[in-house]
Amino acid sequence: MVLIAPGARHMQLRRSGGQYQAAVQDGPPFNRHTPSVDVLFRSAAECAGEDVLAIILTGTGDDGARGMRALHEGGAGTIARARASCVVFGMPKEAIKLGAVDEVLPFDRVAGAILRFDARSERPDGRTEQVRLRPGGRVRRATDRRGFRSVED
User: Fold this and answer.
1) Strands (E), the chain
2) How far is CA 97 from CA 16, 35, 62, 66, 90, in A?
């Protein structure tokens, strides 16, 4: 599932019971940004840790770099887009400089890394969860051990 924070509002990941939820809220700029990637990544580090795969693709400045380091230190998977395939390399470069990145990948290898990360978990019955792409790139998936609900976009 992909969620995008609306302009001028922060998004945070929260856990309620066994489910993850995205919360969108008003707030002052953090690190000069609203929404801020650091706010999202830090909240994900606090409640989900190793269940997260964080990716910085492009952007100016250093927003997201410290949050990505918190995720990295909490066991999350972290990826930055390689300079050669970036239009703007500021955000990935800062995350790499902080030592917050497991892999630096060209854009055309990011989707494969996402699929590998998703396939790493097994369902409670021992079978690997299947991710099926539907027409138009939509995803259908069942609840997994990490608490993600069935989603059909």
Assistant:
1) 10-16, 19-25, 53-56, 77-81, 103-105, 132-134, 138-141, 151-152
2) 34, 23, 10, 10, 11
The amino acid occupying position 124 is P
* DSSP assignment letter at 83: G
Matching residue, tokens 């030592």 = 99
Q: What share of the chain is helix, strand, coil (3-state, %, to 5)?
A: 35, 25, 40
What is the distance of C-alpha 76 from the center of its chain?
9
pTM for the model: 0.77
pLDDT digits (tens, 9 = 90+) for 15-45: 988 899 999 999 999 989 999 999 999 999 9
Is the four-CA dihedral 119, 122, 126, 127 of positive or negative sign?
negative
Asked if the peptide bond before residue 35 counts as cis, ω within 30 degrees of 0, the response is yes
